[in-house]
Amino acid sequence: MRKITNNTDYPGFLLSCEESLLLDSGKSINKFQIAYQTYGELNSNKDNAILICHALTGDQFPAEESPITKKNGWWDLMVGPNKPIDTNKYFVICSNVLGGCVGTTGPNDINPETSKIYGLDFPTITIRDMVKVQKILIDELEIAKLRSVIGGSMGAMQVLQWAATFPEFVKSIVCIAGSLKHSAQNIAFDEAGRQSIMLDPKWNQGRYLEFDQKPENGLSVARMIAHITYLSEKAFQNKFGRNLQEKKDLSFGFGIDFQVESYLRYQGRSFVDRFDANSYLYMTRAMDYFDVSEEIKNNQKRIIENEIRFLVLSFTSDWLFPTKESREIVSLLNSIGSNVSFAEVVSDRGHDSFLLDEPKFFRVCEGFLKGIK
Amino acid sequence: MRNDYKIILDLIPENSKVLDIGCSDGDLISLLADKNISAQGVEINQEKVISCLGRGLDVIHGDINLIVEDFPYNQFDYCILTQTIQAVQKPDVLLNTLKKVSKNIIVGFNNSGRLSKVMQFLLSGSFDSLLKKSDSDQWYNTDYIHPCSIKDFKKLSLDLNFKIISTYDVINTAQFTDGKIPSNLFCKEVLFHLKNVQ
Question: Residue A345's beta-bridge partner residues?
């Protein structure tokens, strides 16, 4: 049984499903909910819907003011009235991913089997599992074909998964700063982040909520490590250089001397307020496990028959998901004879460029979407 | 509309699948799309790629020599190179690779063997006249690293075992068939329609 209600915890909606969902791990969850938000109006033909897939630390609130941070939504520059993803034209859907911590079922929800918080009893999830859940939402909204599925970073993984698993349901794909599979270096960074969380004594084998505490230090350090990978050497240099933080001389100690240290600590601290440590473990694991190449090859016929148009974008200074990896996506899509466009956008702001004010990037996305009929 | 574009639009049948190599701002792709021809571009210049994509055209940013390797056999009906072949590192290698991915190849270029060019070179004693793409180009910074004549290109086509279906004097939009080609001395701009006959 499926039911859509208003979300009482956050703005937006909640799709509650009482059914068994078989996951890639072989395990199932028997009851789950999907928290989502929409912007714009679905037209009568139901052919103007765009699904936005969020990145690791994103949520279902790309546009307008975020109820979580009280600041602009994470993609407010991209999504809204008269913006590149124009909500005057398109019906934009964004849902919190499976395993997330902003309303969709994840490790901190109650396990209906035990009536206790899942914690590490929550099954390991994959990007495909996340996408399967999104597909259930799209079915419930009675949308037969999405105009586009768009996402950056972990969102880019989801959009490629959409093309591979549900090619009949998408007209176009916008894959930003992504890859066909998580690289060894990226798995390494994820592992460092996870170890940081799991070695925090407050983590308590993932049962921290039962003890009414959170592994704040561990999650904060995980965020600091990850945040370094989202920027570029030049971005750090331009922003901070070797400038000292509110002092004239070095302290000859281990407090905050440099502005960049202060910045990183702030990033870590503020992240703890809005994100959950176990979700971080589950979602980084899902990214590690991601490798969609074979599934794309195996579904070549379906992808070609549905004439999906692909737009692949990368940024010059992104070293987390470098251009080389986007080129591998393009190469694979070309090899199966699909319709693909690609551009490498010049930006010195690293992986996070896709969230920032990059006019050329916006122009490309807007132009591409206009061309999808 | 550019004369070479007119010829190409007449030449390519509706519903064909086309690859435009060195597609620049995408003007030709856009014209082809109007005629119901699905065209994909390849362009190395980032600004031009952005401009194509901003217009909703399909284009791949990068080096054609690397990209073309990815396409499956006979993926395209036509492959177009207008004012591009002179800028390619190894025209013979590229044409050979294109054979695998496209049934037809259309190559348009300015004839560097024409009398006026040769005279210009003789009188100035400078290669700039032969290698110029734009006014700011000099022999050392030009993209036109392989200027060629109609004779040169005909020889290359035959050496690579292409069949020359027809050739065109672009300025006069005149078609030449049965092995005839525009005058090497007087034709300014030429278009070759090649077919892989292997």
Answer: A315
